[in-house]
Each structure stands twice: as structure tokens, then as C-alpha cells.
Design a protein that fits this description.
Elements lengths: L6 H8 L10 H10 L1 E5 L4 E3 L8 E6 L1 E6 L2 E7 L3 E2 L1 H6 L6 E4 L3 E6 L1 H8 L3 H17 L7
Antiparallel strand pairs: 1-8, 2-7, 3-6, 3-8, 4-5, 4-7
Length: about 140
Amino acid sequence: MPGLEDPNAIIARLRPVPLFSKLSKKQMNTLAGTATDRSYPPGDTIVKEGETKTGFFLITGGKVAIEKGGRQVATLAAGQYFGEMSLIDEMPRSATVKALEPTRCLVVFPWEFWSSVGNDPDAIRSLFRETVRRLRETPSGPSE
């Protein structure tokens, strides 16, 4: 993705995400330095329900389908994200996510996230609030 090697471009993408909105400049710089840009062709499974692969995915281009039990329950597009629960518990995925079109994501792994925010109660509180908000909005459970 053009320009995403620049930490400021990565920060500009991550800052609007409620999970990261309360992070300090130093914490955002740490995350920007560890975020990975990944591309997925249409039909590619990004994460699979039940697998232990963890990470937070911010969609920077394209569109994905969220499936639970083989049934599509949601569609997400650029600016939206999934995988926030895995930042907290590193448990198996609760849903499958498939690329519906060429898709790009910024990926943040739990160990990188916690190394940058683990000692900041405000950042942790923000993470929990956003996670609970999304759980409340999902009629059939978590959308990860």
C-alpha cells in the first residue's frame, strides 16, 4: 500500500479506531513500527473460525465477509476492523473472515500491542469499552 512504510501514514490509519484513539504518541509510534501490511485475493480466508491464529486486522482496502458456523453474518469494508478480541484473550477465532474482493489489512499482533500499552490503564479501559460495545451490537455474539 503506497505510503504505509511511513509510520505517520500508519498512525493516520490506526488513530480513528476506537481501540487506539486514547493511545499516546509514543504508543502509536510503537504500534506503527510493528503493524504489518497484508494483502488477500478474493476468496482467500484471512482467519478461520476455531483457529488459534491471533491478531487485530484493520481493513485498509477491499471488503470481507464474516461467517459463523458457515453462515455469513456481516460484511466489513475499508476503515472497519476485526480481531480485537484476540488482542485480549488470544483464544481461538470465533468467526471466519474471507476476502470478498482484493483486500488489504494492517495487522497488529497481541504481543506487539501489549508491549506498547500494557502499562497504561486508560488504553486498556478503552480497549475493553470498545470490545464490549461491539459485543452488545452483535445480535448473534462476537464478530471476530
